[in-house]
Amino acid sequence: MAQGFSTYILDEIKKLPGSPGVYQFFNKEDKIIYVGKAKNLKKRVSSYFLKNHESRKTEILVRQIEKIRHIVVDSEEDALLLENSLIKRYQPKYNILLKDDKSFPWICVKNERFPRIFYTRKLWKDGSIFYGPYTSVYMAKTILDVIKQLFQIRNCNLVLSHENIANRKFKKCLEFQIGNCKAPCEQLYSLEKYETDILNARAILSGTLNPVFNYLKSEMQVASVKYDFEKANEYKSKIQILENYKSKSLVCSSTLTNLDVFSFHEDEKNAFVNYFRIVDGSIVNSYILEARKKLSETREDILSFFIVEIRELFNSKSAEIIIPFQIGYEISNVKFVIPKIGEKKKLLDLCERNGKMHMLERAKNESLKAPITKKQRLLETLKKDLNLSKLPHLIECFDNSNISGDFPVSSCVVFKDCQPFKSHYRHFNIRTVIGPNDFASMEEVVERRYTRQLAEGNKLPDLILIDGGKGQLSSAYSILQKLGLEEEIAMIGIAKRLEELYFPNDPIPLYLDKKSESMKVLQQLRDEAHRFGITFHRNKRSEKFTNSVLESIPGIGKTTSGKLLIHFKSVENVKSSGREELEELIGKDKAIRVIDFFSNVI
Hints:
There is one protein chain. The chain has 602 residues and is an alpha+beta fold. The chain has 20 helices and 21 strands. A hairpin with a 2-residue loop joins strand 14 (394-403) and strand 15. Helix 9 packs antiparallel against helix 10 (229-248), helix 14 (438-456) runs parallel beside helix 15 and helix 19 crosses helix 20 (588-599).
């Protein structure tokens, strides 16, 4: 026995019998976390504690087990049924989770005198009989229309007790006038005949049409013998209605009578079971049940659980079940068949095709429900619109700023996944260029930027955007070629006037729709680079002006002006400061010089 488990757990395992049954695992909060079935309780439960599990989820489950309870049953079938019941009741954390959370349509035969038959999505326990579930509202209402045409079942909710009818409490309504009801409320149709109609309607709902055909043909013959040809023709029309309905049912083979057919499919997270119910050679029900897998459940365990669940749901008593593989459990009075050839194999193949199509359709719908993110969409759009070889996750944009060649600076802004990456923004003071020369300035900053990036081993951009036309683009691209990066990094230029986009060595610009997502991203980059560069340029000019004003005061040099700016933050604050504060900071003589200077400045 594996180490690390409490003495209590080990003792409980020793007490387990070698009989079929159901086991329950509880956590420290005394909550059921797993329910399982077993042909041999001792062997099955011991297996959780005797070996290392490949599934991490199973290991986590075992670590949480604080208590074990078991229920011994008489047979494997009872274990199968009890497990299904307990899982539905307690919904343990580590058992498969049924994904059937939809409210499917049902057809109800109400438990009342002169029963109604109607469509509903709710089930209640008052003795009423429910047929379904139907996979579509259309299918359910089609069957109701057939029954309505054949038997004219009432649709009112009147309480048709013997006393109420005898006391003539009700009067026939418009439904009687238009032929949709036979007015049992005024004793125009007997309870005995009405119940016969209900039995035939229930036969149709069960998929058993032959008794209904026999009844209608018998009534037609009786009417003919009595020379009631109008009545006979009415029954003939009803037989035709039923024939039309039967022809729309999927007929398998007249040799196949009452069968249940199950197919099984699974992916990494989910399991799918498709079900066909065959009655008198026709598929009368088709149903898909899905579950989310929680542990490393075997396909045999999942399919056996689904078989019990679906047969209970459809109240199926079929004595033969077609399955794709053995499940290892038996059900009394039921024969499991795994067909290899013949009609049953064709039926299983059809069931499997439907199940597989549903699984693929489900995967497709899931991908549509979780559409591509805005970020990914923008990147894909940029890649397509700019004909790039890869997604532009990292984009850098350069812009120059100067006034008649004074205080020349450049800015580089960085966007990561189409969003500003401000911690990577950079300013550049132009060092080697004299006078207003945008082309030479662009060459300098691009070369400085990527020479350093290469030297430091930093990540290079996927796309470089140059704020300017063909001239600035050519200058920047020549540096990429010099550094050997022209194949690794895409580069484009954006001209301000008409928002033309230029590519290296291509004189013809690209025009994108100005409202397109791609153009908006490029404009945002360009505007951000311009804002960042202008701010830096303005600060440079302001700093130069500030320093020149203070240094122009006789006897005040660069060191003293710097001390004043650090303390007072601005020239205006220096100007409005008091004599004592100035004397304390820079001495009496210099304080007088500053006060005299500003007192003479208008």
